[in-house]
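Good morning,

Attaching, inline, the backbone tokens for the sequence recovery test we're adding to the shared suite. The designed sequence is right after.
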């Protein structure tokens, strides 16, 4: 299955009160839009960490397993959920 990233980004960004263009820019910068991106201790579209997952209430292991299994829908959903939660939290702190 291939996920429509622009739709997924729009849904998650809006749910977190974020501008979808900002989220899309972060995705482009962090992973170049590659759902299965892995770098050191960072995973997914927005390159989230285990600490980010914990803060957002999302299982790091679930995200890691979705990426390893090449499940684009779940990997995108979880990665965007965590990344948007982190970004929204950062915006509130400004």
């Amino acid at each position: 299955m291939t996920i429509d990233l622009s739709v997924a980004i729009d849904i998650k960004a809006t749910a977190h009160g974020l501008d979808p263009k900002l989220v899309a820019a972060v995705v482009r910068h962090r992973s170049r839009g590659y759902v299965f991106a892995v770098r050191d201790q960072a995973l997914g579209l927005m390159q989230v960490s285990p600490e980010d997952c914990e803060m957002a209430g999302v299982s790091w292991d679930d995200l890691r397993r979705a990426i390893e299994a090449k499940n684009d829908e779940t990997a995108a959903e979880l990665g965007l959920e965590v990344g948007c939660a982190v970004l929204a939290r950062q915006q509130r702190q400004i």
